[in-house]
Sequence to fold (345 residues):
Amino acid sequence: MTADPEDRPGVRVLVVDDQSAFRRAAVLLIRSASGLTMVGEAASGEEAVTMARSLVPDLVLMDVRLPGINGPEATRQILAERPDTRIILMSTYEPGDLPGDLEGCGASRFLRKQDIDAAALLA
Amino acid sequence: MTHRLVLAEDNFLVREGVRRMLVGSESVDVLASCGDLGEALEAIDRLEPDVVLTDIRMPPERRDEGIMIAAHCRRRHPGMGVVLLSQYAEASYVRTLLTEGTQGRGYLLKERVADLDELLAAVDAVAAGGSVIDPKVVETLVTGRSLAGDSDIARLTPREREVLACIAQGRTNAAVATELVLTQHAVEKHINAIFTKLGLSGDRTNHPRVRATLMYLAEGQR
Fold:
């Protein structure tokens, strides 16, 4: 019997992006990939911190530019509470053009959105 | 006015994100979103959109498929606008793209795709037969020529370089005047000085000047 994709085990992912078009696209990507399970989506840094606290995801896919606190700052706050969370920062822009401390915030890595696929998220 | 558009991009996240963003804008009707060269050419020939928005590197070869699409459209669908999305500012792509003319052609860095206003402005411009070149690309070309020791570029004043960058992005004299807070007469004087110093000839008021400027900037950078 095939398991319901929503119930399958795997890396539990929280997606954070203020642009609904890209957030929905990321949700579709994760739902279609084996080994990844969507647990929630947030549209701001503050919402990401709150949802990470309640949902305890294994992986957070976090946009860098966000309204309110930006991606690197939200990363820092999430990791202060749960240091074992894997956080991937993402943007269409090059790291040099982005706000916040991408290197020092504790994120596992930075990926350009145009390089993101299921394999990159599981690597 | 709603533009009928075919989107070609192999990365799912970007393709789906851009498609949803454009559909949400209501000024673009996305007729098809394609993931490789073959799909894109088939959709373009069948649907005959107003504008094609395409990545440059896609399957099958991931080399210059977007440039091939632009060339195909120039031959088979001359009125169709094409906006190319490039990961980096590559002079050789700009040169190849513009060899066949600047009308209805745009070259944007891929980082712009999340900025709906910039994307829609580019789509509007090429649909109307105009041209759009990413300001960062123009800056890279100007800097590249400067670093290469181009003595003609070195002879331009800082103000003339600003005017040059505006021309290369396809701006009209009026738009350049507004952007740089100059009179149109002053802009015309600067343009004449630039063309003389760079040894460019031809029409200084319309599309050919965009092509001339960009070809000059892209030439020699490989």
The beta strands of chain B are 3-8, 28-34, 51-55, 81-86, 105-109, 131-133. Chain B has a mean pLDDT of 88.
